[in-house]
Design goal:
alpha+beta; 4-stranded antiparallel β-sheet
Length: 121
């Protein structure tokens, strides 16, 4: 992880901690829409043992692409669920697919007033 990635992560965490909260049902609905999006990426976070789930490539703003992505955290997979997924599924693509079904809402989807860059929510 680059120093700039760490700084962006800290900024994002601050934003998500301070934002007005979306209703839990809204956050879950948004996360489920994200889980079905082909732009979603899963990135292992070794320091916590789990994975972050992002809109596109983590921390990369690609709002001008044909299928725009913001790089924001939209969910997470806890370390225990990730370990079980990795034990059952060996190939990285299978792990990513299974992680989509195990993710919990986080980051952008939990903030009222945030929007999907593709207009899905």
């Amino acid at each position: 992880m680059r120093i700039s990635d760490i700084w962006h992560t800290i900024q994002g965490a601050g934003k998500y901690l301070a934002c007005p909260r979306a209703d839990d049902a809204v956050a879950w609905e948004r996360m489920q829409k994200c889980a079905r999006c082909p732009s979603l990426t899963v990135r292992r976070i070794p320091i916590v043992g789990g994975a972050g789930v992002y809109c596109g490539e983590a921390l990369e703003n690609r709002l001008k692409d044909p299928a725009p992505t913001c790089g924001c955290l939209v969910g997470a997979v806890d370390k225990h669920a990730l370990r079980r997924i990795e034990e059952r599924h060996g190939a990285p693509d299978e792990v990513r697919a299974a992680a989509r079904g195990a993710m919990l809402p986080g980051g952008k989807v939990t903030c009222a007033g945030e929007v999907c860059p593709q207009g899905k929510w």
